[in-house]
# Entry
Amino acid sequence: MNLLGVLSALVQHPGQLQALMRVGRDADTAFKALRQARAELGADLKFGA
# Structure
């Protein structure tokens, strides 16, 4: 991720901060769900084997 680019864009368009925070929360929720699903399915889940 280009942190400098993100910060520059936020300086130019500060109204985007709320949307950026929402995307961050959504991504965190999605990754938690993926980790939970992997734990429930098992680490050695294989497709086509």
In short: Helices lie at 3-12, 17-41.
